[in-house]
Amino acid sequence: MAKRAAQTLAWVTPQNWLLDIALDHLTLARCALYADLLQGRPPGAEAQSQTDAAVSGLRAAGRQDHLPRARLFRDRKALATARALIEECGYIRRLPELQDAEQSLADESD
Fold it and tell me: pLDDT, tens digit, for every residue of 52-102?
């Protein structure tokens, strides 16, 4: 999956297709996260870097509805941002996903 996302990222970047670029970064972030988790490591620099690129790209593309996917990184700040965006935009379709991530993070803290 990472190889394919990197390949399509190379194709869409020269076209300046902002949403496609951002979603490819999101896919690469997921791949990096899963690699870290499978190795028993917390999310590392690659996962964070790709997440940052995805979030910036989603904002540039005007597609904040995809931002709650940042939940994958168990980042309290990202979850708070996602909650604020969901509440601000009224995009409740992602609310159960956000609540699941918040509960998962709370369970890890216990």
Answer: 898 888 889 888 766 666 545 556 777 777 778 777 777 677 677 777 777
Q: DSSP string of 45-90?
A: HHHHHHHHHHHHHHHHTT-GGGGGGGGGG--HHHHHHHHHHHHHHT
The Cα–Cα gap between 73 and 30 comes to: 9
Q: Do the Cβ atoms of 31 and 5 come closer than 8 Å?
A: yes
Q: Which residue has the tokens 């670029």?
A: 21
Distance CA 35, CA 39 (A): 6
d(CA 26, CA 70): 9
CA 44 to chain CA centroid, nearest Å: 14
* Residue ranges of domains in the chain: 1-62, 65-110
